[in-house]
Amino acid sequence: MARDKIIDVVAFGQEIGKLGYDIDHGKSFFQYNPEFLESGKYSKLFPFIFKRTKPAQVFTEYQQDTFQGLPPMIADSLPDTFGNIIFQEWLTARGIQKVTPLEQLAYVADRGMGALEYRPVKELPNASSVNIDEIITILEKVLKIKEDTSGTALDELSLLNVFKIGTSAGGARPKILISEHKKTGKIIAGDREVSEDYNHYLVKLHIDDSDGYNKEKVEYAYYLLAQEAGIEMMHSKLIENKHFATLRYDRQHGEKQHVLTVTGLTGWDFKSQPENSSYENVFKVALGLEVPHKDLQQLFKRMVFNLVFRNVDDHLKNHSFIYNKESNGWNLGPAYDLTYALNPLFTFKITSRALSINGKRTSLTVKDILTIAEEFSIKNPKGIIDDVQALIPRWMEIASELAIPEKIIKTIKNEIKNIK
Ligand SMILES: Nc1ncnc2c1ncn2[C@@H]1O[C@H](COP(=O)(O)OP(=O)(O)O)[C@@H](O)[C@H]1O
Ligand SMILES: [Mg+2]
Hints:
about 425 residues; alpha+beta; Phosphatidylinositol 3-kinase Catalytic Subunit, Chain A, Domain 5; 3 domains; 5-stranded antiparallel β-sheet; 14 helices; globular; binds adenosine-5'-diphosphate; binds magnesium ion
């Protein structure tokens, strides 16, 4: 392997290993740094897939778009649907056609989600401060939401700013990472500081008004509902009463936290592998990671919440686990992306869930839920179902308080039902 086709994987200031990529065959290689391996430190950093052995390990099977040939834990650091649009636009503005996944990781460098970093980095200049309205104007152009009558092409610097804070997080909806100073309120780009002085937010931006309602507000209403249900989530708020901002669980206590999605942990593609997309599998990953039993109770409650409040987009990348470097153990991460994921302006006769339960994606019953509860020794499952269902009337109240349009409130209300 030529030197430029290898990069270092770093976590908590230590070189964990080297990653290679064979462009012609889409193959990747990972080799642990022998000193790291011998130290025995952070031995559960990569709990599955990588063997804890000295020789290089070859990966040929992860050819789907989600992984680009990379080991899944590393592919978790790559941009996703939204990030890729921004990435491509920025490259095009710089006259670059295409980059390899390894080069992409070099751009991710130390600004990726979680604690994994990649070196050598592609150096980029620092932006001074962040103005959300300016970012939105740029994104409107990039995403071609509004007709651009100015006739001016986007300059490289404005794109660079969006690139740096808009490509790290996954998912399809427009989002940026920002840090807000706890005392002064000053907002800076989310890739610059990790410290207790700042609140680090992932902000899902409300850009597109064409639907006549605000999806980010609906997500905020779901966050408030989930709070009442006792579902663990990061503290979230609306910015300017329209953007959904959630504190980052991968930036806590002034430190980077190592996190992986279920797709990243297992290599089960959330897009192309329905056979692996089940709640049973998420529970099995939790067991494989030896999380405490309270986390299984949490996951069960999250599942029930998603069923009752019809969040059908609860796929394998919408569940993550978080590593504790002090105990070398794993926990279920906080819930995120809990929302009414369908378009309330359309009626859907049948909606199939991203994750099956007891082999089913539609017409789920209490019996199906109790089957999974029994399989994973969940305590008081009926009580949990009752508690979540008792919150159904709160949707109308919370949504009205937030002034979500009546039509949207009613459509969603009609979808939220007791499980039979
Ligand atoms: N509070 C958070 N802290 C850290 N990472 C997050 C947080 N919320 C979401 N993420 C990460 O960002 C990704 C995209 O966020 P998500 O809310 O799922 O957006 P989308 O609606 O576009 O799918 C998630 O898959 C998850 O990996
Ligand atoms: Mg998501």
